[in-house]
Amino acid sequence: MDLNFVEDRPFAIESPVDVVEGSSITFACTGWGAVSSPSAVAYRKKTTVTSTVFPTNSPSASGSVITLSPATGLVGGANYIIAVTFTLLGDVFVRKIELICSKDEAER
């Protein structure tokens, strides 16, 4: 799923993102310039759940795009914050993605 980070906004433009439990989603986040040294941390109820959401946590950067490892293990009825840290032009930035995860049997 393609997302966009901008300099003057802490959350991705497309955030919040609706997902369904059982999904496996790879986020490609485009910044406003060449990025390096990406990392990602997942939170649920202000508690770190990175090892559950990103079992293989090895984000990569190419040009202005950060590709996160697939997000898995999402629990229906929960909200998540993904904090993505990266370096751009010598400065370190943190941008966030909010995930709203519904149960697979839930109706609209």
List the helices and strands and how they pair.
Layout: E1 2-4, E2 17-20, E3 28-30, E4 35-44, E5 47-48, H1 50-53, E6 60-62, E7 65-67, E8 78-88, E9 91-102
Parallel strand pairs: 1-3, 2-9
Antiparallel strand pairs: 3-7, 4-5, 4-8, 6-7, 8-9
Folded structure, characterized:
- This protein is mostly beta strands and 108 residues long.
- The protein has a single domain (2-102), classed as Immunoglobulin-like (Sandwich), CATH 2.60.40.
- The protein contains one helix and nine strands, in the order βββββαββββ.
- The strands form two sheets. A five-stranded mixed beta sheet has the order 2-9-8-4-5. The protein has a four-stranded mixed beta sheet with strand order 1-3-7-6, with no helix packed on it.
- The two termini are 22 Å apart.
Strands of the largest sheet, in order across it? 2-9-8-4-5
CATH superfamily: Immunoglobulins
Low-confidence stretches: none
Distance between the termini: 22 Å
DSSP summary: helix tally = 1
- The sequence of SSEs as H and E is EEEEEHEEEE
The description of the largest β-sheet is: 5 strands, mixed
- What is the level 1 CATH name? Mainly Beta
- Which strand-content bin applies to the residues? over 45%
CATH architecture: Sandwich
What Rg do the Cα atoms give?
Answer: 13 Å
User: Given the helix and strand composition, which structural class is it?
Assistant: mainly beta
Mean pLDDT: 95
Structurally, the number of domains stands at: 1
Helix content: under 10%
User: How would the global form be characterised?
Assistant: globular
| Number of DSSP-assigned strands | 9
Q: Predict the CATH topology.
A: Immunoglobulin-like
